[in-house]
Amino acid sequence: MTWLTSLPAAVLVISGLLLALLASIGSRLAVRALIPAAERERAHTIAAPLMPALEAIFALLMALAKAKESKQHQRMRKKLEEAQEARGLRLTELRHAAAQVALIGEYYKLRARSTRATYGGILCTLLGAAAILTAFTWPLS
Question: With a threshold of 0.85, does the pTM exceed it?
Answer without folding.
Answer: no
